[in-house]
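Subject: sequence -> structure tokens, single chain

Hey, anyone have a minute? Need the predicted structure for the following. Not urgent.
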Amino acid sequence: LAERFADIFFLLDGGITPAQFQQVKSFLTRLANQLNFGASAHRLGLAQYGQNVQLEFLLNQHQTKEEIQAAVKRFQHLRLSSTEPRNLGAALAYASNNFFTKAAGSRADQGYRQFLVVLSGKDSSDPVFKESRLIKSAGITVVGIGLGASMEELRVVATTPYIYQVQAITVPVLKRIFISEEPETFLTGDCRAAKLADIVFIVDESGSIGDQNFQLVCSFLYSIISGLEISPKRVRVGIVMYNNEPRAQVYLNTFKKKDELLNFINILPYNGGGTNTGAALNFSRENIFITEKGSRKDKGVEQVAVVITDGKSQDNVIQAAADLRRAGVTVYSVGVQNANEHELRQMASYPPQKHVFIVDSFAKLKSLEQSLQKTLCYNIIHQAVSVSVRRTGIKEGCVQTDEADIFFLIDHSGSIYPSDFEDMKQFILEFIDTFRIGPQYVRLGVVKYADSPNMEFDLTRYVDKDTLKKAVEEIQQLGGGTETGKALEFMGPLFTTAKTSRGHKVPVYLVVITDGKSTDEVKAPAEALRLQGVTIYAIGVKEAVVEQLGEISGNPKRTFFVNNFDALNLIKDDIITDICTTDVCKDVPGDLLFLIDSSGSIYPEDYNKMKEFMKSVVNKSFVGQNEVHVGVMQFSSAQRLEFPLNRYFTKKEMITAIDGMNQIGGGTLTGGAISEVSQYFDPARGGRPDLQQRLVVITDGEAQDEVKAPAEALRAQGVLVYAIGVEE
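Reply:
Had a minute. Here:
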């Protein structure tokens, strides 16, 4: 393999001692002598920082090794006074915007690795959290070397595991980092815990990509796979390459060892050709996600597909993607350069904002590595664990929803495929399974419509779960146009009759599902229903018009749009939870503690969102001396108790206290905070262990300490722990 070159920039603290400066200069001299520097080899840049940044030379200033050696020899120390600020945060921002651009000599767009070596003599005078994250998310590997700065700050600034004290760093160590074939891989917390999944990468190798960009795609695959725990009993990986035709390069049971798989990725062939993404998705479903080729779907192991493409498909993607998702595969789509965003969203699982990744050039794939890897690992864990837990919680809550009348109004027009109609029926069946069905409890009816509405069965027809499910299974699709307004008008008298047959007022709901634009007016009939007290949920699929959906529901929170009918299953929980929680929260006295990340890496607008979230939970809860108690603690490098569980017993007091909270700034020691907060569930600190106790942790997920043991200790106390991530 040819030697791989890099763009290397040194950013030196201008306030280090003269002796330290001589040590650094001698180090740079040796590096300049030993590495192959030049316009077509490694490139070197250099700057110093204090209150501001002083540029010494950019990456493209010196074209030969001799010029670089001479420039290092001329390099002079800034000699800042000890009182002058060291604004490393601002220097990182400056480096990102000025040192790693094409104009400054960066070759990131050609696939050269980008390194920033930070040599810090003391902790920064300004915050480094956000700028560190931004520069790393741009695909730049940051090497941190301490000449007096704390290891805690270096861990924030540098890319793990490249964190060193000056006495531990040598020229050979740095050379290994710069010239290694691939960066050292490091399993993040989520990836260490993501033990089980079958992941298939479906990779476009069409002619529009080109050989150089294909190498960047292979490098991207290498990095993502390096961070996963690969083995036959853990994470299995498959690779499908496609142009006009799909080909299996790696089945899920081809490789047993990670290093063998990684070596194979280094020699993947590039063929060029067309872009038939739909065929590749069908091929993967029929030939890769099967037991004979190593899939463990029969054992309940999560099935994941990651599609990487740079252009619009030349065949039908929508149906192929829906079939793959219906087969139980979670689909992520990664679009590069000229990829079609609409198509990427139609391919990916719901919700698209969590499953679609887009970059405008192949060079920027590097910046996606961490976020995609993190998302994959996080979702592998949480889809394996949380979904079943959440479903159980929802079901328990909904059994307590004593009385409600729910009508489904379903579009069965000719534009709906038979498989889509089956998805709709499945959606209704899951509702039936969740609620306590009976004349005194929850009653359910179905009306279908096309050109005109017709009653399938009303609320009083079926009085138990089994007969109701059988009736849903037997619903037939007839076809026709889409007159949603007429169907909404039809519902008014049905809800009036429901009230009479019930004998008293109960909550009433209408769930509307449609796949197209209504040819008549929907706003007035929907408003009339809401005036009757009906809560309407509007679900639009495929060609439905979002504006019309809003007119039907009258509330953005009850308006849903999905690209395909198979995604109905994923929004079901949101609707069921909304129907149930209004009553459920009032029924369960208990202790609720919020543990809020207040570190410097949380953006102010996200901090305010956290406060709004807490206030909305307080507003929906049945707060009182003998009901729900709420407490709040903030944390960063240290913890700050805002109020314990036994201080406030009214919503007004709690909301005033939350409004008065200010962000602390600093690091993210989540584990320490969980240990600290645990005492506030004890009776001596206001807790009531005989009632249900919950902890809600809200963080950006980047803990700088060990979280697992403190969380397990708290769960052992009987406390339910919920973790909510703030997305970057």
